[in-house]
Amino acid sequence: MKKILFASALALSILSCTESKSENAPAMENAVDNADSKLSSTRYSKGQNMLDAIYYEQIKNDESLKRLDKKIILLQEDSRKVKDLYNDILRKNDEYYSDAEYGAKSINDSVLRKQIINLVKESSDKYYLKTQKLKKLTIQINRNSQTIYSYYVAF
């Protein structure tokens, strides 16, 4: 997963850099002047900042920017979906072990209770070791998402 996100970010970076600067230079230099002032001020008044308004004016006229923007948005959505899935798996398993421990503590027979609590503890410890990789992947997904978003904002 880490390799896919990194490769996607790298590909998006390369795609954005391969455009001919001579084609976009006049439009970008005069982006503020060329932006439809009524539309930009309307967007600005709806909570968008002026840079976003200018960006969306430029993106309307450039198919490659539209494609790049869609790819970045899809990447962010996919990242969110994967994080939600990982978090849901971790939450359900944590809930399971919490319920198992609560149930074990409610057993009246002290010898049986200790045995069940020890079994739950052993299983919980094994689960913890197995989920460390999943948690590390979630952290890496967050980092990659932040990096991609930073490049997107800088772009």
Summarize the entry for a quick read:
It contains seven helices and no strands. It is mainly alpha-helical and 155 residues long.
Q: What layout of secondary structure does this protein have?
A:
Blueprint: H1 2-17, H2 21-29, H3 31-34, H4 37-45, H5 50-60, H6 63-105, H7 110-154
Helix pairs in contact: 1-6, 1-7, 4-5, 6-7
Protein described:
By secondary structure, the chain is mostly helical. The protein has helices at 2-17, 21-29, 31-34, 37-45, 50-60, 63-105, 110-154.
Q: Could you tell me the mean pLDDT?
A: 75
Spans where pLDDT lies below 50 across 5 or more residues: 18-32, 35-41
Query: What shape does the CA trace take?
Result: rod-shaped
What is the percent of helical residues? over 70%
Which structural class fits the helix and strand makeup? mainly alpha
User: How large is the share of residues in beta strands?
Assistant: under 5%
CA radius of gyration is 25 Å
Note the gap between the termini: 24 Å
Number of helices: 7
Question: How would you sum up the major sheet?
Answer: none
How are helices and strands ordered from N to C? Answer: HHHHHHH
Overall number of strands: 0
Name its key features.
mainly alpha
